[in-house]
Amino acid sequence: MSRQDGAKDRSCTTGRGGDNGRMVTTHHKIIFGFHAVGVRLKTAPSSVIEVYIDASRRDARMRQFLERAKEAEIRVIEADGLRLSRLSGGHGHQGVVARVHDLPVQHSLDDLLDTLQEPPLLLVLDGVTDPHNLGACLRVADGAGAHAVIAPKDHAAGINATVAKVASGAAETVPYFMVTNLARTLRDLQERNIWIIGTSGDASSTLYDVDMRQGTALVLGAEGPGMRQLTRKTCDELMSIPMLGAVESLNVSVASGVCLYEARRQRLCGISAEAVRTE
Questions:
Q1: What does the DSSP assignment read for 166-199?
Q2: How far are the Cα atoms of 9, 195, 202, 230, 266 from residue 235, in angstroms, in the given order?
Q3: What is the pLDDT of residues 2-22, one digit of tens each?
Q4: What is the pairing mode between strands 48-54 and 96-101?
Q5: Digit-coded pLDDT (tens) for 222-241
Q6: Dihedral sign, CA of 127, 130, 135, 139?
Q7: Which pTM value belongs to this model?
């Protein structure tokens, strides 16, 4: 996993979460690294104002990147390492820094759910405060096609440069909603017929016993303490990930990947794991 991509806020407001799950946008910011800038060029090239590159770097990766920037008709400015470091706030820029407009993401969780054309697949993180873990969870959520990641406003990491580094572009593509009251948000999801499935090491069912083809919100807590008690009580069902070796648990980002990809597998195959075993 590359940790050389990130974002540095240059705007008048901060964060992406607000009350009642409403996302907050800003005016412009600095992003850096091949992954973060490359994803923005791919998904929203019109939002890229200009790109700064290391004038001394002429390797194949840089040439490929410059071709993409040229195709998108983006202004490219050559700069030395010192200027790039000042722009990005550090030395992990890989020779690529971009100034970009913030993406238009002023919509609520309800607005997002209303637009979906398939059963929702959501990742809920309860108590994940480490930015490296959040970044990795966003990356795996993007890969598995999760529609959003949800976290409590007062007990979670927000989007910052470290998160953006680890997410490798996924912080730009996966909606991240920070909500005031997580238990209430889960109950609102239940009213939409979204099944709330919590993960717990002491659950009697494993993720291979649970049908996740319907609208599903997968709830994971931080490694160690797990979900908070109220969150656990709000879940419709609990499941565990089988642990067959010496270790007792997985990192939350790894566990998120295992759960999300099992849900995606079931949806791609159109059949649950339980049904496969009983045939």
A1: HHTTHHHHS-EEEES-HHHHHHHHHHTT-EEEEE
A2: 36, 8, 14, 9, 21
A3: 334 455 554 433 344 444 454
A4: antiparallel
A5: 877 889 999 999 999 999 99
A6: negative
A7: 0.75
